[in-house]
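User: Can you recover a sequence for this backbone? Please restate the input before giving your answer.

Assistant: Of course. Working from this structure:
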């Protein structure tokens, strides 16, 4: 006796076909979806034709739509019981869509039902679809429910601002989505909920928002943020790995909420916005106290994302609240604090952010900050450069304690940057000193007068010589430090700086400086070079003790 072969179902066709069988996918999936669309469009045209010819009254039209929608949903269960799950879900999509459209027409077109009743009916349709999704373990039905839920406010819109009612509904809808994800591993629903919430929020914001609604709007925006900030943590509690989805959602949610808050709060007070950013940073650090039950690797990555977001918010808060060079100082201080914390808790991530903040500070100091000091040396410019040099020294110190090659490279770069910034700062002071000499001795109307031109040239010559003297003195200082600390790296920096000074003296000073300054430049440089050469030849510090003596030397 032969056993009858079971009829193939749409889901079986899909599974058998696999990813490689394009024909099976087109036949079972894409034609199915196109068919749903065609049926809905055809039904809409038929109803329009019937309505235009007055075949059916308004109440009859709505009744037909509601009855047809429910009938299609019930009919779909027959196919599901026989194993045609995909086709059953397709019919449910048609039925649910007809119900939403019928309720919309009852309110917007025929005005047969008040908005409250229609809203309750649409909510019932959404809840029923969610219930079917859970009982039938069908994520696609949950998608239908969420799409219908977010469409409800648009379908019932009357052009009147009902912010509290709208956003309260969206909060409940988002909490429902969160509950679905708790019971089922349907993480993609969170993205659907996030973008649905964002679209409704933006549509309302650009149409109705004004400053009087700041507190209410910010409360609801914070509620949306909280829901989707918790969502990545809930993802990690599930058995199956969540991949990068929690990280992406955490990042997008943080950026979106910050921009929403910035658009509202910055209009009122930049100080309050800076404090808001700092509080938000603290909240992200607080989220790291959670302990998921599974996916330890995902937990670690999410915690790193929270730390990164917190540091980013602190970094952004600095230019929001502070101005001018105080922004640069803030970034330098942040860099030092992060570097200290990174060393205490042994976190490479914090060290990376510390270096990023330091690079931001140095770039702003060199390329953006403008100073107008009224005094020499004791001015804000020297303070900022001094802080930068101190932080770079701290970086070099921290790197010297590490045995890793990468850390030592960073420490070496920090020392080079430290010396370069120190030279730049001192050069600025020299430049300002001689500019004041010119301005004091020569008022602007007389600046270009022929009888004063020689005086201007004399000041410029003195400035050029002072630059040379600075480079030679700094090079000598570096060489001394290099000998005392037995640091070949520092001595090489001294040699490079002295080489640059040699080029300047032999090329620039010879042609530009007058006889006295030219003589002084060569004599001082010569004495410096002879002293350094003598120190190397005598090898007082036994620098070459380990080098074997070659024959013939």
């Amino acid at each position: 006796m032969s056993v009858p072969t079971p009829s193939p179902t749409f889901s079986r066709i899909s599974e058998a076909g696999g990813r490689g069988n394009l024909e099976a996918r087109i036949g079972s999936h894409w034609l199915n979806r196109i068919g749903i669309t065609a049926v809905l469009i055809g039904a809409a045209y038929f109803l329009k034709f019937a309505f235009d010819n007055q075949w059916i009254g308004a109440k009859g039209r709505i009744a037909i739509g509601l009855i047809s929608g429910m009938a299609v949903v019930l009919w779909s269960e027959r196919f599901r019981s026989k194993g045609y799950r995909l086709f059953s879900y397709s019919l449910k999509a048609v039925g649910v869509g007809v119900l939403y459209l019928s309720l919309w027409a009852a309110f917007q077109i025929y005005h047969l039902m008040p908005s409250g009743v229609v809203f309750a009916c649409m909510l019932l349709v959404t809840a029923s679809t969610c219930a079917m999704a859970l009982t039938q373990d069908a994520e696609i039905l949950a998608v239908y429910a969420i799409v219908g839920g977010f469409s409800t406010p648009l379908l019932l819109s009357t052009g009147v601002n009902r912010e509290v009612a709208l956003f309260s509904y969206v909060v409940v809808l988002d909490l429902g989505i969160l509950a679905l994800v708790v019971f089922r591993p349907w993480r993609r629903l969170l993205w659907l909920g996030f973008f649905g919430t964002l679209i409704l929020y933006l549509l309302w914001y650009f149409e109705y928002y004004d400053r009087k609604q700041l507190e209410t709007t910010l409360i609801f925006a914070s509620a949306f943020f909280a829901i989707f900030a918790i969502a990545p943590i809930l993802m990690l509690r599930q058995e199956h790995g969540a991949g990068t989805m929690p990280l992406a959602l955490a990042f997008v949610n943080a950026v979106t909420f910050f921009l929403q808050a910035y658009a509202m709060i910055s209009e009122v007070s930049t100080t309050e916005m800076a404090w808001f950013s700092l509080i938000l940073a603290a909240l992200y650090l607080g989220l790291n106290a959670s302990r998921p039950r599974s996916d330890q690797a995902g937990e670690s990555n999410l915690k790193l994302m929270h730390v990164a977001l917190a540091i980013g918010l602190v970094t952004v808060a600095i230019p929001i609240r502070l101005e001018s060079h105080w922004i640069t100082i803030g970034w330098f201080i942040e860099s030092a604090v992060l570097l200290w914390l990174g060393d205490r808790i042994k976190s490479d991530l914090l060290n990376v952010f510390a270096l990023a903040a330091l690079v931001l500070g140095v770039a702003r100091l060199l390329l953006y900050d403008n100073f107008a000091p009224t005094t020499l040396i004791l001015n804000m410019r020297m303070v900022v450069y001094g802080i930068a040099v101190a932080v770079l020294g701290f970086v070099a110190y921290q790197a010297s304690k590490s045995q890793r090659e990468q850390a030592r490279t960073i420490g070496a770069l920090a020392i080079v940057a430290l010396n370069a910034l120190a030279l730049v700062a001192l050069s600025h002071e020299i430049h300002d000193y001689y500019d004041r000499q010119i301005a004091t001795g020569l008022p602007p109307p007389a600046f270009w007068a022929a009888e004063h031109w020689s005086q201007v040239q004399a000041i410029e010559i003195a400035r050029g010589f002072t630059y040379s003297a600075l480079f030679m003195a700094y090079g000598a200082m570096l060489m001394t430090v290099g000998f005392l600390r037995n640091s070949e790296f520092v001595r090489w920096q001294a040699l490079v700086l002295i080489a640059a000074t040699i080029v300047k003296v032999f090329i620039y000073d010879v042609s530009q400086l007058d006889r006295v300054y030219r003589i002084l430049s060569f004599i001082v440089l010569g004495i410096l070079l002879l002293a350094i050469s003598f120190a190397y030849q005598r090898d007082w510090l036994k620098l070459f003790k380990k080098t074997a003596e070659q024959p013939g030397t």
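That completes the design. The longest helix spans residues 405-441.
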